[in-house]
Amino acid sequence: MNKHNYKNLKTVFAFILLVCSFTISAQLHFDTSLSATATIKKYLTKENSGIFINSVHFQGVRKSFAGFTDPSKYAVISEGITISTGNIYDAIGPNNRENAGIKTFGPADADLEFLGKGKSYDAAIIVIDFIPIADTLSFDYFFASEEYPEYVNKGVNDVFAFIIKKEGEIAGKNLAVFQNAAIPISVDNINSRKNNHLYIANSTWSYSNVKRFENNKAAGERSLQYQFDGFTKLLNAETVVVPGERYQLKIGITDIGDPYYDSGVFLKSGTFTARGAKPSGIDFLKLLAEHVDWELPPTFQLKSNNSYSFSLKINYDTDKYALRSDMRPSLDQLVELMSADIRLNLTIIGHTDNQATPEYNLTLSRNRAEGIYNYLIANGVHPNRLSFEGKGQTEPLFANTSEAVRKENRRVEFVLQLGD
Asked: How far is CA 299 from the centre of its chain?
């Protein structure tokens, strides 16, 4: 092989390696299979977020809202939720079109029309009803649009908002702003010419010209992963809240001026949090416990000046301690409660009827409590926040005079405490 051919071969081999460095990473993935509430809980909130989710409602075309994962090396956000003015699957790269988007025939929205100063099309709205347990709410996000760069300042100013208001308030506050809350974030307000320190252009992808990304692999990866023509950098929304009060956060996005050229907003998993000063006391503990959407609401009894006891109608068959499938919904709600505040501690107490020896029943009751203890740990509750014990047959709810009442005595009791 002569020197010229060897040099050409090296060039081709280097090109192949460069292309492979981009394409071997997994593709951007969207999940629209879950309910709105399940999507938020799986992809946005995490344990110890300091936020207690009451409910989630979505308005719009279902494929405009999704959980997502971006496994690429230079991902700005690796996991979170996203909403779009179009079909979110159209956001999957490579960026090989300048006009990606469809008309979804989604609703209009008055709040977004006011911010965008134009007619609203294809709005997608998520409303999260929640209770913060600390005094500062924040989350990270970025905005992306197909209207970059050619439709900046052309009267088709796609816009989004994070509007928060306390229960009972009429007007809300938009958190999707910058420069001391003076300017809403939109295509017209952040672009290559205006506030460009917050803007990222997305290059057009071409396999025949991939070598231009050799010294900027982040740009190459972004061009391969996303169809959107431009992005904001990662931004943060933050506001002061009152711990223990009920709030609604409206996450909305819409086309303004025409129903074409999609835009999307991406929220980062694990950053939707309430941090800072937290309330304490028995009243706050009861508020947390009672705001779980319990399948069968328990009765809470004051146990001490900082704890409540309750049961979840978890009753066992005779001489059994294995968990049944019908117990899991209540236990999953218990996991949800424990994730609301890292200060919560839980004691699990097993009980039996009197149909065996006291020694045998003591072991059986302990096994029942331990089974739930292990389930909670397996579902993300730290063992340092849990303890369990068995009381055997020593504390029946009722006299063991029939099978019906003995079943009520084959139970598990919980004691919930708010620590420091």
From this structure: 29
What pLDDT digit, counting tens, does each position of 102-125 carry? 566 677 788 888 877 777 778 899
Which among 311, 312, 310 is positioned nearest to 327, based on CA atoms? 312
How many other C-beta atoms are found inside a 10 Å radius of the C-beta of residue 414?
Answer: 21
Cβ neighbours for 118, distance < 8 A, ≥ 6 positions apart: 155, 156, 157, 256, 257
- State the amino acid at position 74 in one-letter form: Y
State the Cα angle at 138 between 137 and 139, rounded to 5°.
Answer: 145
Q: Which of helix, strand or coil describes residue 116?
A: helix
Q: For residues 21 and 23, what is the distance between their CA atoms, to the nearest angstrom?
A: 6
Using 50, 70 and 90 to split pLDDT, how confident is the model at 17? very low
Task: For residue 401, give the DSSP letter.
Answer: -
pLDDT above 80 (res 316): yes
- The owner of tokens 């929220």 is 267
> What is the DSSP track for 164-189?
EEETT-SS-EE-SEETTTTEE-BTTT
Q: How many CB atoms lie within 10 A of CB 138?
A: 15
3-state secondary structure 279-335: CCCHHHHHHHHHCCCCCCCCCCEEEECCEEEEEEEEECCCCCCCCCHHHHHHHHHHH
Among 250, 252, 248, 249, which residue's Cα sits nearest to residue 112?
252
Whose tokens are 């629209």? That residue is 32
What predicted TM-score, i.e. pTM, was given to this entire model? 0.77
Write phi, then psi, for 37 (nearest 5 degrees). -65, -45
Answer for the pair 126, 250: CB distance below 8 angstroms, yes or no. Answer: yes
Tokens found for residue 75: 């991902």
Cα 45 from Cα 81, distance rounded (Å): 10
Question: Does residue 341 sit in helix, strand or coil?
Answer: coil
Q: Are 98 and 201 in contact (CB under 8 A)?
A: no
Q: Do 337 and 407 touch, CB atoms closer than 8 A?
A: no
